[in-house]
Amino acid sequence: MGRPGEYTLRALMVEDDAERAAWIARETPGVVWERTASARSAIAALRRKPYHAVFLDYDLHGVTGGGGEHVAKALARGQYRGVVVVQSTNPVGGPRMVRDLAAASIDTVYAPAFRNYGSERLWRQALEVAGTRGRAA
Question: pTM for the full model?
């Protein structure tokens, strides 16, 4: 990114933990992030403009408008064409979102651990895939 002729990789982060969101943003230079902590505002953002990738948490504690699962359903209904990284540590909700998104033929990566090299590697790979496709959904 940043070289002549390249486009900017845009990603939406649906995450209510400010520390986690800041860490992910710091670890992904070259990505332009838009962050929201609620399902309602995430769905509205997805309607406003396209994103190459969506980082999606399942549990959105203390916010109104529903959880990450509502966003996953909206992505499936809208036939989202980018990559979704489910970053939830919820042992039931995270995998269920992955299954639902995959069933809707959405490229999905499950990378649940926070500050874990294995998960970091997975979501970096997902961003690479989104970037090489050059499409935002």
Answer: 0.81
